[in-house]
Design brief:
By secondary structure, the chain is of the alpha+beta class. The chain folds into two domains: 60 residues, Arc Repressor Mutant, subunit A (Orthogonal Bundle), CATH 1.10.10.1400; 72 residues, no CATH class. 52% of the residues lie in helices and 13% in strands. The chain is built from six helices and two strands; from the N terminus they run αααααββα. A two-stranded antiparallel ribbon has the order 1-2. Helix 1 packs across helix 2, helix 1 crosses helix 4 and helix 4 packs across helix 6.
Length: 162
């Protein structure tokens, strides 16, 4: 398979999904022959096999992306501000935070100022919105419920012999 054919497959399955002509043009085939080239390529056994392989890889990437999104939303939703402090109520260093706690922090600011003879170090942290994470997770759950309803009713009829 040529690099141009591979590029056609990648474009057909992603950017120009389902548009063989545009995929052929952007893969480097002539605009004049792009339509016929695209149709011919879609019937090529080698192309069909390669596209099946690419589809499987894309599906796996989507599953991983979905899993990571849920994992990250869960980290935001479960964030507890107490996790930022040690047992003596001192703010932990970011490098000492578990990754799911550090993920919830959107920014930090350290201010050093002199108070008389002593220097004070004030650190502030902003966190991502816990409410927004919960709302997003609820929306995702709603999508699942729309696909596979949770509440299903059915009737069981038991006869005299059963």
């Amino acid at each position: 398979m040529t690099p141009k054919q591979k590029r056609f497959c990648e474009l057909y399955l992603t950017k120009y999904y389902g548009n063989a002509t545009q995929s052929a043009i952007h893969a480097g085939y002539s605009k004049k022959t792009a339509y016929s080239q695209g149709q011919r390529l879609l019937k090529n056994v080698e192309i069909i096999k390669y596209m099946s392989k690419l589809k499987a890889e894309l599906l796996e990437e989507m599953k991983n992306d979905h899993y990571n999104t849920i994992k990250n939303l869960r980290a935001l939703a479960n964030f507890n501000i107490q996790d930022l402090y040690d047992e003596k109520s001192n703010l932990k260093l970011i490098k000492d935070l578990p990754s799911e706690v550090a993920y919830a922090i959107s920014s930090t600011e350290t201010i050093i100022k002199k108070d008389g003879e002593e220097w004070d170090i004030i650190t502030s942290m902003k966190t991502e919105s816990k409410l927004k994470a919960l709302e997003t997770m609820s929306k995702i759950q709603k999508l699942y419920e729309d696909i596979a309803p949770v509440n299903q009713s059915f009737t069981i009829i038991v006869g005299k012999d059963g």
